[in-house]
Amino acid sequence: xxxxxxxVLLSVSLVINIVLFYGLTKYELVEKGSTRISDNQLAEIPExxxxxxxxxxxxxxxxxxxxxxxxxxxQSGFGYIYSLTDDKILEAINDGKKDVGYFGEDFxxxxxxxxxxxxxxxxxxxxxxxxxRYVAIYSSNQYAKYDRTSTIEEVSxxxxxxxxxxxxxxxxxxxxxxxxxxxxxxxxxxxxxTDNNEDxxxxxxxxxxxxxxxxxxxxxxxxxxxxxxxxxEYKIAFEDYVK
Length: 243
Prior knowledge:
Layout: H1 2-75, H2 86-98, E1 111-114, H3 119-122, E2 125-129, H4 131-146, H5 152-156, E3 163-169, E4 178-184, E5 187-189, E6 193-196, E7 202-208, E8 218-224, E9 231-236
Antiparallel strand pairs: 1-9, 2-3, 3-7, 4-5, 4-8, 6-7, 8-9
Helix pairs in contact: 2-4
């Protein structure tokens, strides 16, 4: 009887040990497996961070590129009083196309005073050459000569927002006999370039837009080089020529 009881106790003990051993082994395997999974996940984290960093860098590049374009756009004339949107460029193209002899009379400066009755001054016309006027004249010439309509891309390639030009249309080839002077609020604004065409009937005067305050009126004076007392003055109200 005692032997039978001992056998049963040993059997129960053995079963308990087997169960404990199996349980501990399974627990260890699970823990080790969990550790391996965790290591793999940790190994993937730097790779994931690299991807995020690349995405962030890419996003940053897009932002910088956009900002750069905004700066470039601003430097290329947006915000400038005579800058043109695509819609305005199309409007200027159509204005020129409608009139094969387009001259842009709307951009003529009014005469304020003149001290000379000389025909050289009497028949002088002065224009402010905004980009709109340039585009319309170009469009008119292209349509008149070649029966073709100018495109936005085409005219955008020659629009320059860095300078503003005034053109004096003169009789008798007298352009080389005359000089010009632009004044604003009592100060003289120096031109950085002056051109006379071959026939001497057009004088073009270039001014940096950075030198002009477009909120204030100005006076353009045309006078004889040999006799400065002979002159004509033209008023410029810059806002009147925005189209």
